[in-house]
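task queued by scheduler; priority normal; single chain, no ligands, no partner chains; default sampling; output format set to structure tokens
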Amino acid sequence: MDFDATFETQLNTLREEGNYRVFAELERKCGSFPKARSHDDTGPNEVTVWCSNDYLGMGQHPVVRNAMKDAIDQCGAGAGGTRNISGTNYHHVALERELADLHGKDAALLFTSGYVSNWAALSTLGARIPDAVILSDELNHASMIEGIRHSRANKVIWKHNDPEDLDRKLSALPANTHKIVAFESVYSMDGDISPMQEIVEVAEKHGAMTYLDEVHAVGLYGPRGGGVSEKLGLSDRITVIEGTLGKAFGCMGGYITGSTALCDFIRSFASGFIFTTALPPAVAAAAKASIAHLKVSDVERQEQRARVARLRALLNARGIPHLDNPSHIIPVMIKDPVKCRMLSDILMRDWGIYVQPINYPTVPKGTERLRFTPGPLHSDADIDHLADALSVLWKQCAIAHAVA
């Protein structure tokens, strides 16, 4: 069999559909983010990044950078192995304590990414809790879907952000099943926020465990950056809070928090933890410094909200269609994969604006978009420049001015 021919056939199909992904080669400029150096052959040498999940620019913060450099000088580069064999370091333990405190939990457990933490935790819970049924919001992240699938537990899908449908689905299950309700706080593609209190109350009514993904909310919401659950005062009523260190905290890694027994259970049985090399100690030290800073500093969050509000106001004034939501994520709707790619390329080449097109399978076909994430380090001039560019392109490309 000609395997390369098989690969090329399927890749060509992606290209024809407009869903083939091209990565921009960028070099973030320390101290001047969101500016970055572009290594692509066409377009300007310097661009402004508008789609980073480093939502607060903490990857550039001197407190975080200095903590990482100090830890490298103390410990060297790598962890040396899996946590079970030779990889547990003081910085890992200190970070887990910081995370447990952030969410008001007894314990925390680190993973190499938010994807792995979801996959490992949900697959282990579903596989090892007898008669488990996992009830998953229909728009949950791929990492949660993969974890549930790998667990081989019975699965029930409930309508997105619909506590009444969740209640119906829970009521239909046998009384002897162990129920796990899995959902997110901020859904990253549409930027909507779950009705968390109602979901928690429905789960409690049926004696179900709650599993909350806060990856797009930690650092950004709540008085100390504990996420939407902290903002709403619900952290103590949620069984498992999962998060990432790779977005608002500006580093890398994922984690879960919960009871001591639960975290020990996942630590002891999850293959995604047992067989994976630990995070470098320097990354753990940097993440701990970032979390500790955002627990006491609200400046970054307030500045980010001001930038989000400014961009939304300008888009409204120019008639640029974007999804209205209560979060920090601004999806500008294109609804065509080819046009979405084309607009992204033009913005990069002619305007020095970097934003990746969001196409299928990340979002359903027909809902393609450009996803903007204004941060505290974007200037008013940056925002004005973006609004001007989009306004010009909307006229040139004859894109609809309606969201729906």
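post-processing summary
- The first helix runs from residue 3 to 17.
- The mean pLDDT is 95.
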